[in-house]
Protein backbone atom coordinates (compact mmCIF):
# COMPACT_ATOMS: atom_id res chain seq x y z
CA UNK A 1 0.00 0.00 0.00
CA UNK A 2 1.17 3.58 -0.61
CA UNK A 3 -0.21 6.99 0.30
CA UNK A 4 1.53 9.26 -2.19
CA UNK A 5 -1.77 10.68 -3.48
CA UNK A 6 -2.78 11.69 0.07
CA UNK A 7 0.59 13.35 0.63
CA UNK A 8 0.32 15.30 -2.64
CA UNK A 9 -3.06 16.66 -1.59
CA UNK A 10 -1.64 17.63 1.80
CA UNK A 11 1.27 19.46 0.12
CA UNK A 12 -1.17 21.76 -1.62
CA UNK A 13 -3.15 22.32 1.58
CA UNK A 14 0.07 23.18 3.46
CA UNK A 15 1.56 25.43 0.75
CA UNK A 16 4.52 23.11 0.10
CA UNK A 17 6.03 22.09 -3.22
CA UNK A 18 7.56 18.85 -1.93
CA UNK A 19 8.25 16.72 1.14
CA UNK A 20 11.54 14.96 1.86
CA UNK A 21 10.89 11.83 3.94
CA UNK A 22 13.73 10.30 5.93
CA UNK A 23 12.00 8.38 8.72
CA UNK A 24 11.67 4.65 7.98
CA UNK A 25 8.05 4.39 9.14
CA UNK A 26 7.02 7.50 7.23
CA UNK A 27 8.76 6.16 4.14
CA UNK A 28 6.78 2.97 4.44
CA UNK A 29 3.58 4.96 4.84
CA UNK A 30 4.37 7.01 1.76
CA UNK A 31 5.76 4.42 -0.64
CA UNK A 32 4.89 1.03 0.81
CA UNK A 33 8.48 -0.02 1.38
CA UNK A 34 10.46 0.08 4.67
CA UNK A 35 13.73 1.68 3.62
CA UNK A 36 16.65 1.49 6.00
CA UNK A 37 18.81 3.91 4.03
CA UNK A 38 17.74 6.52 1.50
CA UNK A 39 15.02 9.05 0.85
CA UNK A 40 11.47 9.34 -0.41
CA UNK A 41 10.73 12.63 -2.15
CA UNK A 42 7.13 13.52 -2.96
CA UNK A 43 6.27 16.57 -5.07
CA UNK A 44 2.89 17.75 -6.26
CA UNK A 45 3.37 15.88 -9.56
CA UNK A 46 5.87 13.10 -9.00
CA UNK A 47 7.57 10.92 -6.39
CA UNK A 48 11.05 9.42 -6.11
CA UNK A 49 12.39 6.48 -4.09
CA UNK A 50 16.14 6.80 -3.68
CA UNK A 51 18.06 3.88 -2.19
CA UNK A 52 21.24 1.83 -2.66
CA UNK A 53 22.12 -1.52 -4.23
CA UNK A 54 21.02 -3.53 -1.19
CA UNK A 55 17.38 -2.52 -1.59
CA UNK A 56 17.02 -1.43 -5.22
CA UNK A 57 15.26 -4.56 -6.47
CA UNK A 58 12.80 -4.67 -3.57
CA UNK A 59 12.19 -0.92 -3.93
CA UNK A 60 11.33 -1.31 -7.62
CA UNK A 61 8.85 -4.04 -6.77
CA UNK A 62 7.32 -1.99 -3.95
CA UNK A 63 7.00 1.18 -6.02
CA UNK A 64 4.54 -0.45 -8.40
CA UNK A 65 4.76 2.48 -10.82
CA UNK A 66 3.81 5.03 -8.17
CA UNK A 67 7.29 6.53 -8.03
CA UNK A 68 10.61 6.77 -9.86
CA UNK A 69 13.20 4.51 -8.25
CA UNK A 70 16.83 5.64 -8.34
CA UNK A 71 19.99 4.07 -6.93
CA UNK A 72 22.75 6.10 -5.37
CA UNK A 73 26.37 4.91 -5.35
CA UNK A 74 29.92 6.18 -4.84
CA UNK A 75 29.69 8.45 -7.87
CA UNK A 76 26.20 9.79 -7.17
CA UNK A 77 25.28 10.50 -3.54
CA UNK A 78 21.70 10.13 -2.33
CA UNK A 79 21.35 13.86 -1.71
CA UNK A 80 22.76 14.71 -5.16
CA UNK A 81 19.91 12.66 -6.66
CA UNK A 82 17.43 14.44 -4.39
CA UNK A 83 18.84 17.80 -5.48
CA UNK A 84 18.48 16.89 -9.15
CA UNK A 85 14.87 15.82 -8.57
CA UNK A 86 14.12 19.09 -6.79
CA UNK A 87 15.55 21.04 -9.71
CA UNK A 88 13.52 18.99 -12.19
CA UNK A 89 10.33 19.67 -10.23
CA UNK A 90 11.08 23.35 -9.66
CA UNK A 91 10.77 23.03 -5.89
CA UNK A 92 11.27 26.11 -3.73
CA UNK A 93 9.26 25.19 -0.62
CA UNK A 94 10.52 21.87 0.72
CA UNK A 95 9.10 20.24 3.82
CA UNK A 96 11.14 18.07 6.20
CA UNK A 97 10.71 15.97 9.34
CA UNK A 98 11.96 18.30 12.05
CA UNK A 99 11.21 15.84 14.87
CA UNK A 100 12.87 12.85 13.22
CA UNK A 101 16.14 14.36 12.02
CA UNK A 102 18.97 15.31 14.33
CA UNK A 103 19.91 18.99 14.36
CA UNK A 104 23.15 18.14 12.57
CA UNK A 105 21.45 16.10 9.84
CA UNK A 106 18.87 18.84 9.35
CA UNK A 107 21.63 21.40 8.79
CA UNK A 108 23.63 19.08 6.52
CA UNK A 109 20.62 18.40 4.29
CA UNK A 110 19.80 22.11 3.99
CA UNK A 111 23.41 22.89 3.08
CA UNK A 112 23.64 20.09 0.50
CA UNK A 113 20.31 20.90 -1.15
CA UNK A 114 20.64 24.66 -0.97
CA UNK A 115 17.09 24.94 0.34
CA UNK A 116 15.67 25.45 3.82
CA UNK A 117 13.73 22.49 5.20
CA UNK A 118 10.36 23.77 6.36
CA UNK A 119 8.80 21.97 9.37
CA UNK A 120 6.28 19.46 8.01
CA UNK A 121 6.26 16.65 10.56
CA UNK A 122 2.66 17.36 11.54
CA UNK A 123 1.51 16.88 7.95
CA UNK A 124 2.47 13.21 8.10
CA UNK A 125 1.25 12.76 11.68
CA UNK A 126 -2.18 14.08 10.73
CA UNK A 127 -2.41 11.79 7.71
CA UNK A 128 -1.31 8.74 9.67
CA UNK A 129 -3.79 9.43 12.49
CA UNK A 130 -6.71 8.22 10.36
CA UNK A 131 -6.30 4.66 9.10
CA UNK A 132 -7.61 3.36 5.80
CA UNK A 133 -9.57 0.11 5.54
CA UNK A 134 -6.42 -1.58 4.22
CA UNK A 135 -4.36 -0.41 7.19
CA UNK A 136 -7.03 -1.54 9.65
CA UNK A 137 -7.17 -4.95 7.95
CA UNK A 138 -3.41 -5.37 8.53
CA UNK A 139 -3.80 -4.40 12.19
CA UNK A 140 -6.61 -6.92 12.63
CA UNK A 141 -4.36 -9.63 11.16
CA UNK A 142 -1.65 -8.67 13.64
CA UNK A 143 -4.16 -8.78 16.47
CA UNK A 144 -5.35 -12.27 15.54
CA UNK A 145 -1.74 -13.47 15.58
CA UNK A 146 -1.27 -12.10 19.10
CA UNK A 147 -4.50 -13.68 20.29
CA UNK A 148 -3.50 -17.09 18.93
CA UNK A 149 -0.16 -16.82 20.70
CA UNK A 150 -1.84 -15.87 23.97
CA UNK A 151 -4.30 -18.74 23.76
CA UNK A 152 -1.49 -21.26 23.35
CA UNK A 153 0.68 -19.68 26.03
CA UNK A 154 -2.11 -19.70 28.62
CA UNK A 155 -2.19 -23.50 28.35
CA UNK A 156 1.46 -23.87 29.34
CA UNK A 157 1.85 -21.26 32.11
CA UNK A 158 2.38 -22.90 35.48
CA UNK A 159 4.03 -22.21 38.83
CA UNK A 160 7.80 -22.45 38.57
CA UNK A 161 8.08 -20.80 35.16
CA UNK A 162 9.89 -17.47 34.99
CA UNK A 163 8.67 -14.22 33.49
CA UNK A 164 11.35 -14.50 30.84
CA UNK A 165 10.19 -17.98 29.85
CA UNK A 166 6.60 -16.80 29.37
CA UNK A 167 7.80 -13.84 27.30
CA UNK A 168 9.83 -16.22 25.13
CA UNK A 169 6.80 -18.44 24.57
CA UNK A 170 4.69 -15.48 23.46
CA UNK A 171 7.36 -14.25 21.02
CA UNK A 172 7.96 -17.73 19.59
CA UNK A 173 4.27 -18.39 19.09
CA UNK A 174 3.62 -14.99 17.51
CA UNK A 175 6.38 -15.71 15.00
CA UNK A 176 4.98 -19.17 14.30
CA UNK A 177 1.57 -17.65 13.59
CA UNK A 178 3.00 -15.22 11.05
CA UNK A 179 4.19 -12.15 12.92
CA UNK A 180 6.96 -10.12 11.24
CA UNK A 181 8.37 -9.31 14.66
CA UNK A 182 7.39 -7.71 17.95
CA UNK A 183 5.62 -4.37 17.84
CA UNK A 184 7.53 -3.66 21.08
CA UNK A 185 9.52 -5.62 23.64
CA UNK A 186 6.94 -7.73 25.49
CA UNK A 187 6.13 -6.99 29.12
CA UNK A 188 5.62 -10.09 31.27
CA UNK A 189 5.61 -9.55 35.03
CA UNK A 190 4.29 -11.55 37.96
CA UNK A 191 3.61 -11.13 41.66
CA UNK A 192 4.56 -7.75 43.13
CA UNK A 193 6.12 -6.71 39.81
CA UNK A 194 2.64 -6.42 38.25
CA UNK A 195 2.45 -3.05 40.03
CA UNK A 196 5.07 -1.80 37.52
CA UNK A 197 3.21 -0.77 34.33
CA UNK A 198 6.33 -1.20 32.18
CA UNK A 199 8.13 -3.89 34.15
CA UNK A 200 10.82 -5.87 32.32
CA UNK A 201 10.63 -9.69 32.19
CA UNK A 202 13.24 -11.24 34.45
CA UNK A 203 13.96 -14.42 36.37
CA UNK A 204 11.13 -13.95 38.85
CA UNK A 205 9.27 -17.22 39.32
CA UNK A 206 5.51 -17.56 38.92
CA UNK A 207 3.78 -18.68 42.12
CA UNK A 208 0.27 -19.88 42.85
CA UNK A 209 -1.96 -17.02 43.97
CA UNK A 210 -0.12 -14.42 41.89
CA UNK A 211 -1.21 -12.27 38.98
CA UNK A 212 0.68 -12.33 35.69
CA UNK A 213 0.42 -9.30 33.40
CA UNK A 214 1.32 -9.81 29.73
CA UNK A 215 1.53 -6.82 27.38
CA UNK A 216 2.69 -7.66 23.85
CA UNK A 217 2.06 -7.19 20.16
CA UNK A 218 2.70 -8.52 16.66
CA UNK A 219 3.49 -6.92 13.31
CA UNK A 220 1.73 -7.56 10.02
CA UNK A 221 2.51 -5.60 6.85
CA UNK A 222 4.48 -3.34 9.18
CA UNK A 223 1.42 -2.51 11.31
CA UNK A 224 1.25 -3.07 15.07
CA UNK A 225 -1.09 -4.86 17.40
CA UNK A 226 -1.13 -4.24 21.14
CA UNK A 227 -2.90 -6.09 23.93
CA UNK A 228 -2.62 -6.71 27.65
CA UNK A 229 -4.15 -9.45 29.73
CA UNK A 230 -3.77 -9.98 33.47
CA UNK A 231 -4.47 -13.51 34.66
CA UNK A 232 -4.24 -15.25 38.03
CA UNK A 233 -2.45 -18.52 38.76
CA UNK A 234 -4.21 -21.05 40.98
CA UNK A 235 -6.39 -18.58 42.86
CA UNK A 236 -7.16 -14.89 43.34
CA UNK A 237 -7.94 -13.09 46.58
CA UNK A 238 -11.12 -11.07 47.02
CA UNK A 239 -9.12 -7.85 46.72
CA UNK A 240 -7.48 -9.03 43.50
CA UNK A 241 -10.88 -9.88 42.05
CA UNK A 242 -12.28 -6.52 43.11
CA UNK A 243 -9.45 -4.53 41.54
CA UNK A 244 -9.76 -6.56 38.36
CA UNK A 245 -13.50 -5.84 38.15
CA UNK A 246 -12.91 -2.10 38.66
CA UNK A 247 -10.33 -2.00 35.86
CA UNK A 248 -12.66 -3.89 33.52
CA UNK A 249 -15.56 -1.55 34.35
CA UNK A 250 -13.31 1.45 33.70
CA UNK A 251 -12.18 0.04 30.37
CA UNK A 252 -15.76 -0.56 29.26
CA UNK A 253 -16.70 3.00 30.29
CA UNK A 254 -13.85 4.45 28.26
CA UNK A 255 -14.77 2.36 25.23
CA UNK A 256 -18.40 3.48 25.55
CA UNK A 257 -17.28 7.13 25.50
CA UNK A 258 -14.91 6.68 22.57
CA UNK A 259 -15.82 7.92 19.10
CA UNK A 260 -14.49 10.18 16.40
CA UNK A 261 -14.94 13.88 17.05
CA UNK A 262 -14.37 13.86 20.81
CA UNK A 263 -11.13 14.92 22.53
CA UNK A 264 -8.99 12.18 24.01
CA UNK A 265 -9.39 13.58 27.52
CA UNK A 266 -13.12 12.83 27.42
CA UNK A 267 -12.45 9.14 26.72
CA UNK A 268 -9.81 9.06 29.45
CA UNK A 269 -12.10 10.88 31.88
CA UNK A 270 -14.91 8.34 31.51
CA UNK A 271 -12.60 5.52 32.58
CA UNK A 272 -10.79 7.55 35.22
CA UNK A 273 -14.07 8.46 36.93
CA UNK A 274 -14.81 4.76 37.54
CA UNK A 275 -11.41 4.15 39.11
CA UNK A 276 -11.60 7.28 41.23
CA UNK A 277 -15.09 6.40 42.47
CA UNK A 278 -13.77 3.02 43.59
CA UNK A 279 -11.05 4.75 45.62
CA UNK A 280 -8.08 3.85 43.42
CA UNK A 281 -7.61 7.13 41.56
CA UNK A 282 -4.06 7.71 42.79
CA UNK A 283 -3.04 4.28 41.47
CA UNK A 284 -3.91 5.00 37.83
CA UNK A 285 -1.02 7.17 36.66
CA UNK A 286 -0.89 6.73 32.89
CA UNK A 287 -3.39 7.62 30.20
CA UNK A 288 -6.32 5.50 29.04
CA UNK A 289 -4.85 4.88 25.61
CA UNK A 290 -2.67 5.86 22.68
CA UNK A 291 -3.02 5.70 18.93
CA UNK A 292 -1.02 3.07 17.08
CA UNK A 293 -0.29 2.02 13.51
CA UNK A 294 3.13 1.70 11.89
CA UNK A 295 4.49 2.87 15.27
CA UNK A 296 3.29 1.44 18.54
CA UNK A 297 2.76 4.97 19.89
CA UNK A 298 1.20 7.52 17.58
CA UNK A 299 -1.02 10.56 18.01
CA UNK A 300 -3.58 11.59 19.11
CA UNK A 301 -3.81 10.13 22.60
CA UNK A 302 -6.63 9.45 25.03
CA UNK A 303 -5.13 10.89 28.20
CA UNK A 304 -5.94 13.73 30.62
CA UNK A 305 -4.07 16.20 28.37
CA UNK A 306 -5.65 14.99 25.13
CA UNK A 307 -7.23 18.11 23.64
CA UNK A 308 -7.09 16.94 20.00
CA UNK A 309 -10.31 15.63 18.50
CA UNK A 310 -10.10 11.97 17.55
CA UNK A 311 -10.38 11.53 13.78
CA UNK A 312 -12.56 8.99 11.99
CA UNK A 313 -10.51 5.84 11.52
CA UNK A 314 -8.15 6.40 14.45
CA UNK A 315 -6.93 3.16 16.01
CA UNK A 316 -6.56 3.61 19.77
CA UNK A 317 -5.68 1.37 22.69
CA UNK A 318 -8.01 1.04 25.68
CA UNK A 319 -5.78 0.18 28.65
CA UNK A 320 -6.66 1.51 32.09
CA UNK A 321 -4.90 0.01 35.07
CA UNK A 322 -4.62 0.02 38.85
CA UNK A 323 -1.16 -0.47 40.36
CA UNK A 324 -0.72 -1.00 44.11
CA UNK A 325 3.02 -0.50 44.76
CA UNK A 326 4.82 -3.56 46.11
CA UNK A 327 1.66 -5.65 46.02
CA UNK A 328 0.05 -6.19 42.61
CA UNK A 329 -1.40 -4.44 39.60
CA UNK A 330 -4.01 -5.05 36.91
CA UNK A 331 -4.14 -3.77 33.34
CA UNK A 332 -6.57 -4.86 30.62
CA UNK A 333 -5.92 -3.63 27.08
CA UNK A 334 -7.89 -3.87 23.86
CA UNK A 335 -7.55 -1.92 20.62
CA UNK A 336 -10.46 -0.06 19.02
CA UNK A 337 -11.21 1.71 15.76
CA UNK A 338 -13.05 5.01 16.19
CA UNK A 339 -16.06 5.82 14.03
CA UNK A 340 -18.42 8.78 14.12
CA UNK A 341 -21.01 6.72 16.01
CA UNK A 342 -18.74 4.91 18.46
CA UNK A 343 -15.83 2.52 18.85
CA UNK A 344 -15.32 -0.87 17.22
CA UNK A 345 -13.17 -3.13 19.41
CA UNK A 346 -10.98 -5.31 17.19
CA UNK A 347 -9.53 -7.33 20.08
CA UNK A 348 -11.46 -10.58 20.46
CA UNK A 349 -9.62 -12.31 23.31
CA UNK A 350 -11.79 -12.83 26.41
CA UNK A 351 -11.21 -10.38 29.24
CA UNK A 352 -13.11 -11.79 32.16
CA UNK A 353 -10.72 -12.81 34.95
CA UNK A 354 -8.96 -16.04 33.97
CA UNK A 355 -7.59 -18.24 36.75
CA UNK A 356 -5.12 -20.77 35.38
Q: Could you explain how this protein is built, in words?
A:
The chain is α+β, with helices and mostly antiparallel strands and 356 residues long. It is 36% helix and 21% strand. It has helices spanning 4-13, 24-31, 56-63, 78-89, 103-113, 121-129, 133-154, 163-176, 238-257, 264-277, and strands at residues 18-21, 39-43, 47-51, 68-71, 94-96, 117-119, 187-190, 211-216, 219-220, 223-224, 227-232, 289-291, 298-302, 315-318, 321-324, 328-331, 334-339, 342-345. A six-stranded mixed beta sheet has the order 4-3-2-1-5-6, sandwiched between helices. The chain is elongated. The two termini are 41 Å apart.
What count of helical segments does DSSP give? 10
How many β-strand runs?
Answer: 18
Could you state the order of secondary-structure elements as H and E? HEHEEHEHEHEHHHEEEEEHHEEEEEEE
Low-confidence stretches: none
Estimated helix fraction:
25-40%
Shape verdict: elongated
Rg estimate, integer Å: 23 Å
Secondary structure class reads: alpha+beta
N- to C-terminal distance: 41 Å
Strand proportion, as a percent range, falls in 15-25%
SSE topology sketch:
Elements: H1 4-13, E1 18-21, H2 24-31, E2 39-43, E3 47-51, H3 56-63, E4 68-71, H4 78-89, E5 94-96, H5 103-113, E6 117-119, H6 121-129, H7 133-154, H8 163-176, E7 187-190, E8 211-216, E9 219-220, E10 223-224, E11 227-232, H9 238-257, H10 264-277, E12 289-291, E13 298-302, E14 315-318, E15 321-324, E16 328-331, E17 334-339, E18 342-345
Parallel strand pairs: 1-5, 3-4, 5-6
Antiparallel strand pairs: 1-2, 2-3, 7-8, 8-11, 9-10, 12-13, 14-17, 15-16, 17-18
Amino acid sequence: MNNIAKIRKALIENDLDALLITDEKNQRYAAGFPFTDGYVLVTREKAWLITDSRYIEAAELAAGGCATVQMYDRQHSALSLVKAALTEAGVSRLGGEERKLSHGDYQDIEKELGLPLLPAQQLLADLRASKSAEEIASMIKAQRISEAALEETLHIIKPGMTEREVAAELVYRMLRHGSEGNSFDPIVVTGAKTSMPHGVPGDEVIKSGDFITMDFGSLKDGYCSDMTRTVAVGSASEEMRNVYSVVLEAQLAGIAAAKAGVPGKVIDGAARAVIEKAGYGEYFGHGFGHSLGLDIHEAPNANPRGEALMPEGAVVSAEPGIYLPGRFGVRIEDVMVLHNDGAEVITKAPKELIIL
